Amino acid sequence: MFRQFGLDEFLMLLGGLQWTSGLTVLAFGGSFGLGLLLLMARVARFRVLRWAASGCIQTVQGTPLLGLLFLAFFALPLFGWDVSRWVAATVALSIYGSAFLADIWRGAVAAVPFGQWEASAALGLTRWRQLRLVVLPQAFAIAIPPTVGFLVQLIKNTSLASVIGVVELSREAQLVNGATFAPFLVYGCVCLLYFVLCYPLTAWSRVLEARLAR
Amino acid sequence: MTYTFRFAPVFSRIDQMLDGLVLTLWLTAIVIVAGFTLGVAGALAARARAAWLRAAVRCYVEAIRNTPLLAQLFFIYFGLPGLGLRLDAIPAGLIALTVNLGAYTTEIVRGGIDAVPRGQVDAGTALGLTPVQVFFLIVLKPALKTMFPALASQFTLLMLSSSLLSQIGVTELFHMASLIDSATYRSFEVYAVVCGFYLALALAFRLLFAAIYRLAFTAP
């Protein structure tokens, strides 16, 4: 006999949403750090570094996230690191996210007028200080709305971690569905829960963008 | 690292992967045509005079853009049969991808159309063109040029995300990889090769779209 889909089952899905949020935070942290490194390389003075960073970004953007997840899941143990599914998912999502964030941020850096670089170079700042003290603070304001927008993408993409067995919202949905066999209700609730998590961020990103345009 | 890479068992099953690749290309082509049509219709409806129609498009776009494709796919394939609407894997996958692409395309096309100066539409009307002629010749064609880069990257993203259909058993490229994986147990090698395939496809798409852009929008 199947279980009824009731409050307990809904609470299980809510628990899944919590893990989705947790995975998003981990993946965003990883994407942020890696993305910053990629950005540095992407705007570096040495052409080779710029090409390498650009190559990395293009390669990751041309690979399906599902592929990155499986690669991380099977590749990390090859190096002798016996990692959990959570670590594999975080690594894959971080690599994936960093490529997109670096791309977004490079656009923001390019939007800062070139004269700002020249002026700070004329003041005798090193390349790193030009970036840190003059260019990045200005690029930061431009980069915030699309970065929040990307956070929504990342939340949605954590659903793919279910495929390598991370129990977040999508995986929890499959488990609850297996117990209750109320697929319409279960997957309906899941879509709704994702929406509740994502929509406020989408709206916020839109407000930030409007404020920037003013 | 003591692992020995063995790609030979994977390459001996490369014809299976090529079969999957062909299906992936078919699915992508169908969804690009259907999703783009849906997007143009959505962008038109978003500018309709009827307020309910505009509200309906808003809801559609927001609902799709704020939920994961995987959840949409599961809802359509596993959820809708609960209402008595049973679909096979391929139609369900095509519908999910089309509905998804349609929402993103609606936004892109809407932005492109908004960028066409109002005066050009008035000029076209003053010359006695019908509203349909005005839309296709004066609005859509120049708008297509401005939105082409965004559309091209959306279409490439669609090709990559069609890999999700493997999760409902459509035998496209990624599903073939899992099949070969379970036959050979060379997991890493299989997924590395399949990622290489997708990468090559993404590169081919980029070259193809650049060529289309040059042919269609550059004055001779």
Task: Please provide a written account of the structure.
- The complex is a heterodimer of chains A (214) and B (220).
- By secondary structure, chain A is mostly helical.
- Chain A has one domain: Orthogonal Bundle (MetI-like fold).
- Chain A is built from 8 helices and no strands.
- In chain A, helix 5 packs antiparallel against helix 6 (127-157).
- The model of chain A has no long low-confidence stretch (mean pLDDT 92).
- The termini of chain B are far apart.
- Chain B has a single domain (8-217), classed as Orthogonal Bundle (MetI-like fold).
- Chain B is 78% helix and 0% strand.
- Chain B is mostly helical and 220 residues long.
- Classes of the chains: A mainly alpha (214), B mainly alpha (220).
The percentage of residues in β strands of chain A lies in under 5%
- Overall shape of chain A: it is elongated
- Taken from the alpha-carbon principal axes, the silhouette of chain B is globular
Order of helices and strands of chain A: HHHHHHHH
Classify the beta-strand content of chain B into a percent band.
under 5%
CATH topology of chain A: MetI-like fold
What CATH architecture label of chain B applies?
A: Orthogonal Bundle
Q: Provide the domain count of chain A.
A: 1
Number of DSSP strands of chain B?
0
Helix proportion of chain A: over 70%
Per-chain topology:
The complex is a heterodimer of chains A (214) and B (220).
Chain A: H1 7-42, H2 47-61, H3 65-75, H4 85-111, H5 114-122, H6 127-157, H7 169-180, H8 183-213
Chain B: H1 8-11, H2 14-46, H3 51-65, H4 69-79, H5 89-114, H6 118-126, H7 131-161, H8 173-184, H9 187-217
Helix pairs in contact in B: 2-3, 2-5, 2-8, 3-5, 4-5, 5-7, 6-7, 7-9, 8-9
